[in-house]
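Curious: why these numbers?
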Amino acid sequence: MVLGKDSRCAVVGHGSWATGLVKILTDSGAMENGNRVGWYVRNPDVAESLRSEGRNPRYLSDVEFDAKCIEVSGDINAVVGATDVVIFAAPSAFVKNYFEGLTVPLADRFVISAIKGIVPGNYLSVTEYLSRDHGLTLGRTGVIGGPSHAEEIALERLSYLTVACENLDNARIMTHKLSAKYIRTTISADIHGVEYAAILKNIYALSVGIAAGLGYGDNFASVLISNGAREMRRFLQKVFPCTGRDTDVSAYLGDLLVTAYSPFSRNRRFGLMIGTGLHVKVAQMELGGVAEGYYASETVRHVNDAHGVDMPIAEAVYSILYEGTTPSKTMRNLTNKLI
């Protein structure tokens, strides 16, 4: 499928990142020829607030939308049926729920994942899930990656996004649609690399949070992050070989850094709670949102069983989250495996 500059976009989801993406789209060139940005919001209270007040009362509530720029609906088939580009930006834990009532075929559209997580129970990334369960080839899918906390998008602080598509012409069209004054965009053909980098960095941010909760300082955090970057590079090159991939650029290393250090990072906060002594299930309830690194940890371990990549940090996080090992002892053992 080849996109045009007048291709209409829609966003599925009403969380902070979905709200941030709608803001970018309405602030950029996504509405050529009078097209409004479609927005599937399944929460009726949020949908009504967006229609009547132009605000999402639950996420990024300071962002005000012009009603002439958005078309909010609680009918996913109406939203998907009226668009050319569907951007999924819901937490990965709920991806399957969004597809339950979908009858409009996705095969007629270009589908982009802005989800930095794993489809739980399937050991699949979102694009892999779309391929296996919905018959979408890589040519009809794309990924939005890069260091991009929605809270800073709301404040219009300069951020960089990477659009990864097999068809680079489509990637260029999407960079045009996402190029607001506070957004810089780059393109990539490395769909699996960009997608899995966004998945892996959540695990490493979680490890940094655990270490902080245990009382380790910034010096050790920098060691964790640098070793995490090396783990990421080894995993991607073994599982998804790609000539010319540079994991030092923002879609890989940049996203890892901001997720590990930023106070906006949900995965870091989740790890911090575990490091200070909360049980995993209690920390999940206290967090009040989805920590994608929790699901990613199990999936990456499952995928790596077939490849045997040396991943001591990912293994340590998995053992704490799923095997109940003591964070202090596990982290102490990990310190002997880092350089």
